[in-house]
Amino acid sequence: MATIITGKNTIKEAITVGRKIFELYVQPGTNDEILELAKTHNIPVKELQKQEINNLLPKGHQGIGASVQDYAYLSLEDALAQPKKHRLYLMLDGVEDPHNLGAMLRSCDAFNVDGVIIPKNRSVQLNATVAKVSTGAIEHVNVIQVVNLSQTIRKLKENGFWIVGTDMDTPQTIHEMDVEADLCIIIGNEGRGLSRLVRDNCDYIVKVPMSGHINSLNASVSCALVLYEVYRRKGE
Amino acid sequence: MATIITGKNTIKEAITVGRKIFELYVQPGTNDEILELAKTHNIPVKELQKQEINNLLPKGHQGIGASVQDYAYLSLEDALAQPKKHRLYLMLDGVEDPHNLGAMLRSCDAFNVDGVIIPKNRSVQLNATVAKVSTGAIEHVNVIQVVNLSQTIRKLKENGFWIVGTDMDTPQTIHEMDVEADLCIIIGNEGRGLSRLVRDNCDYIVKVPMSGHINSLNASVSCALVLYEVYRRKGE
User: Fold this and answer.
1) Whole-number percent of chain A with pLDDT over 70
2) Which tens digit of pLDDT belongs to each residue from A29-74?
């Protein structure tokens, strides 16, 4: 199956890493650099006038689109088979906003996250918006789709992972995490936070220390602060 | 002038802090808690059926909207007149996405930022989308609108501020900032980064250390990582 993606960086990265691209759509006079790249990769190009490209592509397309092979998921088994010391996984417990997932994928690429686990239901999936917002990071992050988060947590624990939930309602801060271990950080839904069952299955819960009146952060911001804390303290 | 805002948290916070609310729009059977709050504040309420409220309000309204007094800006002079040791300002050099500004306002509230400076032109302004995404943080953060960023930087320097730009193209990291000082952190445009003139006027430039392939983060994520670093090291 194909997905139509847009955006200069996203498409450039897709070509560079060798994603299968069925056709490139471009508005003449724009995106010369990507056209050159497409030529060297023998990718079919269709020139479309402004009006046509506006009809075909969603807003914010930057004059370029591509029909590409769908983004694929890794299985948990395959992900766990990749050996590494002190693995860092991110689990999303009901994140809904594709902008958040896109921004999180950028942070995962930046801070050496080994896999992002998302449930098959009640969660945003990999799509064109996520790809665009990730500015190409989607090509570099392992995304693992699972059916059941509780079972996944059990399997991770069997594999030696510590399961660390994030929430404001806890005394422990991100600075108290033991980062010299296999870690799975869990970020909850944008409005409701962690689901009860997932929370109960965590080894411990941490918060980002903060002051202020609102006492919560954007989900992708929280996520980045926790991931960066692990990255910084591991000294990677 | 009035702005129509939506979202439970945004409206609850607006009522709580005493923002002038001309009228509340609510879908019967939803948002009972806010209706109670509105009653105690003598706010006129208009009940609208699902279809009517969908026509009136933008998507994602959560069954509630309010016509409120426009969000106001502070002048730089008034902001600087508020005495405080080691002030922390954030300057946005061409940030365009209201979702980014909304998320940044949440981080500013959380990490004790004393003022957010945005230019009058070529920048996102305070609006209903920013208010919604900020989940009420917009009510607690001083936003300063200025005409010219270079002149503003000069005035801040005269007032003892250190001007710290953020960019990937620099050897210095956020860990090398001197946080025991009046600081103004600058975040650039989502695609282009800092403008040339603003960059040239910075005292120094810092980056968030990272690995990976994409080598950049979402603007509101970068912003939060820098602000949190200052907050953490000040021990506030």
Assistant:
1) 100
2) 999 999 999 999 999 999 999 999 999 999 889 999 999 999 999 9
Q: A111 vs B236: CB contact, 8 Å cut-off? A: no
B107 and A218: CB-CB below 8 Å?
yes
Q: Please work out, in degrees rounded to the nearest 5, the angle formed at the alpha carbon of residue B217 by the alpha carbons of B212 and A166.
A: 90
- Best A217, A218, A225, A234 member to test B by mutation, with max B CBs in 10 Å, is A218
How far apart, in whole angstroms, are the C-alpha atoms of residue A176 and residue B69? 43
Q: Which amino acid would we find at residue A181?
A: A
Q: Are B137 and A106 in contact (CB < 8 Å)?
A: no
The DSSP bridge partners found for residue B21 are B68
pLDDT at B83: 86
Residue B204 CB neighbours (<10 A)? 13
Other CB atoms closer than 10 Å to residue A22's CB: what's the count? 12
d(CA A156, CA A182): 9
Read off the pTM. Answer: 0.95
Q: Which of B27, B236, B75 is nearest to A209 (CA)?
A: B236
- Is the CB of B231 less than 8 angstroms away from the CB of A210? yes
The closest of B123, B117, B124, B219 to B168, measured between CA atoms, is B219
Q: Kindly report the number of other CB atoms within 10 A of residue A88's CB atom.
A: 23
Closest residue on chain A to B9 (Cα): A214
C-alpha to C-alpha distance for B11 and A226, rounded to whole angstroms:
29
Interface of chain A toward chain B, CB-CB under 8 angstroms: 9, 13, 99, 102-103, 106-107, 109-112, 133-137, 139-140, 208-218, 220-221, 224-225, 228, 231-232, 236
Q: How many beta carbons lie within 10 A of that of residue B57, not counting itself?
A: 22
Contact B214 A111 (CB under 8 A): no
User: What is the predicted ipTM?
Assistant: 0.95
pLDDT band (50, 70, 90) for residue B147: very high
Burial class (CB in 10 A: 0-12, 13-18, 19+), B168: middle
Nearest Cα of chain A lies from the Cα of B234 at a distance, in angstroms, of 12
